[in-house]
Structures are given as C-alpha cells and as structure tokens.
Predict the structure.
Amino acid sequence: MRIIAGSLKGRRIPFRSAGYGDAAATPQKLKEALSSILGEDLSGHSFLDLFAGSGQMGLEAASRGCALVVFNEADRRRTEFIKRLAVQWGLGDAVRFHSLPAHACIKMLERQGQGFDYLYIDPPYLKNRGDAPVYGQLLLDLSSHRILNPGGRVIAQHYLHNLLPERCGIFIKVDARRYGTNALSFYEEKSGSGDA
C-alpha cells in the first residue's frame, strides 16, 4: 500500500498483515474516494485514527498537512510499527500515539481537552447483514466524551451490509458511500444538540 496524495505521496507502507494479527488494510479504492471527499489539503486540521491498524489513514492525513494526527491502536506491535515509520518519515510533533482500547482512548483525550476535526473509526468488521452494535456504542461514547470539534465529522468505515444508525447520541448521519464490500458513513453533530 502507498500514500496517494500530499507531501508523502508515493511512499510505501511496508505493512504485512500476516505479521500483525492479520489486520485488514483499507482498500486503495476506498482511500482514494475519501481523499476526494476530504480534499488534498488538510492544513491546520486535526485527525484521530481510533483503530489505526497499519496507520495508513492517519499517515494519509499527515501527508495532506494535518497539524495533528493521533494514532490509537490497541495492538502494541502495530503501534510500534506506525511509530517507527513516522520516525523514518520525519513526521515529528505532528503525530502522537496511543495503544489503548477505543473507549479508554476517547476518555483520555477528553480529559486532556483534545479535540479533532475528523474522527476516523474503523473497528474490526462484523461481516453480517444488519445491525453492527459496535458503531452505535462508539457514537454514544463520542457523544458523552466531546472530542469532536465544532463543524467536525465522524467517519465510520464498515462492511457494506452493516446497518449503522441514522441518528445516535448527538450525531446524525449526513452521507454514506459504498465501495465494493466496504462503505463509509459520515456523521455530524445534530444542530441544537450542543448542550444535549
């Protein structure tokens, strides 16, 4: 897999999933589509990759100029892989790393007063038709622990046939796109829910 845009364009991410618990990598087509949606210049923005895996989504965000990219990956081997790559690529203070369960990371970031313009959530897929409760729980956690900046977006990557909620906590789904067997659902804070 390679970085597709920005200052790191063309760099290869030497991640072999078999060596890291068979972590699934985001398909290139989906990554390119998200690039088109968000735009190539993310200068000044902040990005949380909550289930970082190989780190490719957060690395794309860093390549496009994000002022801060936080990688969270519960598997320490994967976290160390991303750290080593970030050092090799000279990303410096623009990146930070955590190796926590998602809920613990969300709570910690709230305690630190950290906010993000983009929250990317890509938990291990439940490949079934119908409800995928992990997404609803994550949206409720993010509703309770306010780490999304005003005007920001939650981006959920999921299996095509999962049904994600239209509304959950303070969030409302504003868009959904399909790419092969994968999909992206986009959430924003409902208007008037700032104190809800």
